[in-house]
Amino acid sequence: MYYFVYLIENENRNRYIGFTSNIKQRISDHNSGKGTQTTKRSQKWKLIYFEGYLDKRDALGREVFLKSGAGDRFLKKQLRNFLAL
Asked: Does the pLDDT value for residue 72 go beyond 90?
């Protein structure tokens, strides 16, 4: 089984970082109002970044990191061209 940490963005450029074992289904859930409290308000989320892991603990640790200040800086550097659009 694979585990994914992902970053989605809506039409207002709001972003959400999450974790899942089924990325396609999870994005569909976010867009059908079955997502988290944060993502329920918008139903136009698109996947802009993801990482895959073989171990669930590694993926959960990475999710925590990406939600931190250092993780935010990493994503801004990693996605500098996309975020400049």
From this structure: yes
Give Cα separations from 16 to 1, 54, 69, 83 (angstroms): 23, 22, 14, 14
3-state SS, residue 7: strand
Question: How many whole angstroms separate alpha carbon 49 and alpha carbon 39?
Answer: 16
Could you name the CATH architecture of 3-83? 3-Layer(aba) Sandwich (3.40)
Q: What is the pTM of this model?
A: 0.91
Phi, psi of 27 (to 5 degrees): -65, -40
Tell me the CA distances in angstroms from 29 to 5, 36, 53, one per residue in order. Answer: 15, 9, 21
